[in-house]
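Researcher: Next entry: Nucleoporin nup82 (Bondarzewia mesenterica).
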Amino acid sequence: MQYDEDDWSTILNNHPIFSRSSGPTDPLFDETSFELSTNTLPKFTQLDPEDDSLAPSGRRQTMVIKDAELIVAVGKELRVSALGDAKFNKGSKSYKLLHTPNIQFEIHQLALNPSGQLLAIAGAFQVAVVVLPRPGFTRLVPTKVDCKSIQVGQYYHASTSAAPIVKIEWHPWGDAGSTLMVMTVDGKLREYDISVDTEEPQQIISFVPEKKSRSFMANDVSEREVASFTLGRGKADWGPLTMYAAMKSGDVYAICPYMPQNASIPSSYIHSLECFVAAKKEYLIQSTSPDTRSLSTTYDYQHKYVSALLKQFPPGTVFPASSRSVSVHPPNTVRYPPLRQGPFLLQPSPRNLDGSEGGDATDIIYVAFSHEVEGETERLGVVLLSYQDGKVDVCLDVEKVEAQWEHKQHSNADLSPMLAVYESIDLGLVSSLSGLQLLDLLQGNHPVFHADPIYDDTVYLYHAFGVHALHLDKLLYSLATALRGEGLDSSLAASLDSQEQTEVQPIVTTFSVERRVSNPVIAVALPNDVYLTYSIFILTSSMRVVSFTLNLRSDVLQSRPADLLTDKEEIAVEPLLKQIEGPPIYVSLLGDKPFETPAIFSRPSGLPSIPRLALPGSQTPKEFRLTPDTLRYLGQTVERFTAQIHDVQLAYREVRARSALQEQEYRRQQEKSGDMEDLISQLEGPRRDKTDERLEKVQAAQSVLMSRLSKTLHALIKEASPELSEHEMGWFDELKRMKGEVIGAGRYDESSLLARVRLLEREFNRLMPHLNARREKESKRMRILYEQNQRLGVSQAFELGKQFSQEESRIRNMQRELSNLASKLEVSLGRPPSLLANPSK
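Model: Predicted structure:
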């Protein structure tokens, strides 16, 4: 059976795993509780610890994909279903319930640990961890799978006075993948090691300083509430040990260094970090600037920190070597806590959207350009900040954060770190809602980033009104090209003038113009499994799933600019034939550059060009109501479709013209090929015979000329010196005499040097085995004698030394005679065994 033509949206349509939970018994419970409208807006903006409403407010991620299994949280339930069974067994659609009696709260977030064995669950105020069953076990049980679930930090997260949970995330370098990070709105980041203790955090990091008693701070409330956090990235710097946090006011702070209490870090990274710190310290020593001298304490602490990490390596670890994970703990060599760096200066200041009064920041993500290009720009960092009004600030991490501590010599007046604001993206939410007088709905909007698991330069942003895809590849490539240029300032300025921007593509919209409500997107998941197609799953609050099959990039090198090619890739191929100067003999009609497919026909990512409308099927009215808003929406939609149809027609004409041009060029090349075949046949026929005859005549004439030249040369020699001189005759006689001495008068002449050398060689080969045997015997005897008497007497040592000196002198005399004889005969001999055994003598 063939199911390739079916997408996941059709396969998962009406799947029971997306049905509503049967738990709520409230008579007021209906589908409108899950919608964002003017009536339900207070439930999205107000948070009650005693009553967790059904409104999908705040950060939501209620769907994850583990291998080929889909895990969905519905209310307080966890459901799992095999995607392979749903695709190939289309007749039966079912799911299994993960029985977790300890979870008695509405599930807002799901996070799968790196090993895929633990699932972190977060509600508005509580956190739990579920131990997932092994792969394939869910097929063995009928409807319910008993799973072990553990409450995490009940003292901190289960009380009525607990701070709301902002985000949960597993640390990628946690030992055994059991390090869970929980951020609350009060700025406390608590680190739990599930394999050690689930109640008490291993570390607590604060991004909001404690208010001092008897002090007054006029800060805004949003400046002391955390919106989200993210981990930095890097290869040979402090990026992976940096934690970034975004406040609701838009301020960004960083704490470095931060690592789990029980960490498993690649050894290559720590060695690279050691080289980075050593280079910084060496530069500081050579510099005479007073600004750099003030950093000596910080670099000393960094060196102590990295040295303490290296001391935790197992014995025998060398560098360079194959990288492997090493279990380490945060060093205690620096007694001061890490410094909270910030707020970051955003330069230039981000612009506000037209028609918007601004909004709270909702999420932050750190994206690194990890293309396999050698050089300093291979880890170009980009920080993305999202806001409620649909604004996304794209900031370049031009000044990398380094480890700093709150030591006494640190001054609060030091310069704050900086992020270069490259652009501010407008998702178009303000413009679409302003015409409907629904700007207040933005208060319930909470955009969330979701990184692509395969391509680092692609980020998905889902919110209360749909999903947008952000493609940073062109932007990152242009910046990398500029930074790798010879003239740094000019190349960078040219790159900035080229206005390469982030490609923003809306893929799903959930806003109903007719009903003036929206179903927020509550989950986005991308499978990273070889048995599943590369696709994206989008789940709305109405439990409708939308999926798109994405395209894998076939050849990365073709999409890279030529300036990014390294020297190893630039292989110069010399042409077989040198080109004739002047205009080319044949000019193609197609030109030098290859044909580029029109953008309307090329969908490199596989996402739709027009966002798909995802509305709940049950809420679709039977009769269509025509209102000014619906007319305006239909007009805009028709306008977009008309523009797209017009672009398709233009692209079709362009492709047809190109096709006709290629056909014409093909006919020209056929004619030219026929002419070349005729020319080749002429060259192989009569013209070749004529050429062969001419070559034979030339060879005969050359032979005659060579004979004449030889006769002329002999005549000139005879005229110049008719007889040999006395010196020449004496030299030839001496050569004959030397030849007789070396070779001899005959074959059996024993007095010749050649015969004597052969005799000497035979004697040498005959004596050497006896000498070697005697030497081994003597060494064995000396070893036994040494073992019996480790110390000899003075007289014994004197006699042995005297005997050894005599033998050594005899051997050296024999070696000297052999060497003199060999030098006279110009024969090379190998080094004697004694010299080979002891080259220093």
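Model: Note for the record: DSSP finds 17 helices and 34 strands in the chain.
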